Amino acid sequence: MQEHVKILDHPVIKHKISILRDINTGSNEFRSIIKEIAMILAYEATKDLELEEYEVETPIAKTTGYKLSGKKLGIVPILRAGLGMVDGVLEVFPAAKIGHIGMYRDEETLMPVEYYSKLPLDVEKRDIIVIDPMLATGGSACDAIDNLKAKGCNSIRLLSIIAAPEGIEKLREAHPDVEITVAQLDEGLNENSYIVPGLGDAGDRLFGTK
Ligand code: PRP
Ligand code: URA
Prior knowledge:
Blueprint: E1 5-7, H1 11-21, H2 27-45, E2 51-57, E3 62-68, E4 73-79, H3 83-92, E5 97-98, E6 100-105, E7 112-118, E8 127-131, E9 134-135, H4 139-150, E10 156-163, H5 165-174, E11 179-185, E12 188-189, E13 195-196, H6 202-207
Parallel strand pairs: 1-11, 4-5, 4-6, 4-8, 8-10, 9-10, 10-11
Antiparallel strand pairs: 2-3, 6-7, 12-13
Uracil (URA) binds next to helix 6.
């Protein structure tokens, strides 16, 4: 795989993604697995965060402790389906601020349409984690990242549960500086730009709208 693209390779993740894929899995279990994988992606995607040393006294001895010392974090879910990952990422970074970008794919043109954006006032000073379970054509993620860069953000990571090679390619071309961490790389897209084998429409499966 390319530079700046990490793929989780773990038997438990493969097990859980198979449950997500299953057409018979209901919204309750689907939501809970999306949250759990989002938490693991958040750890994996932030291995490079800066640390500062300090002295800690344990009940046994003094030792060197570490605390995160870099920029504050901002989590930006792409609505709707990105909402399903927010709680998992917040488990890892409970003090992060949360911005929202609303985006849907026009069913005819398949192009992303932005309908909402509300970001923290100091968004440009933060390390930003964009979250969306599906990276299909990459159009939605690219547009959301364009929006963030236009606001001055220069440290952006993207976390997705399932990606198609086409989406990764598009993002790598448009935003080579953005680190991408995905739980699963699938085969490709079908004629409607759905990921194959994928898991269907992530928003509908999370929120029970189909
Ligand atoms: C889904 C998904 C991504 C987008 C991925 O959202 O959550 O945002 O499609 O496709 P792309 O990479 O080709 O842009 P959708 O448009 O279904 O909206 P929803 O989350 O509101 O259901
Ligand atoms: N959006 C989804 O929710 N699923 C796909 O497979 C592609 C885009």
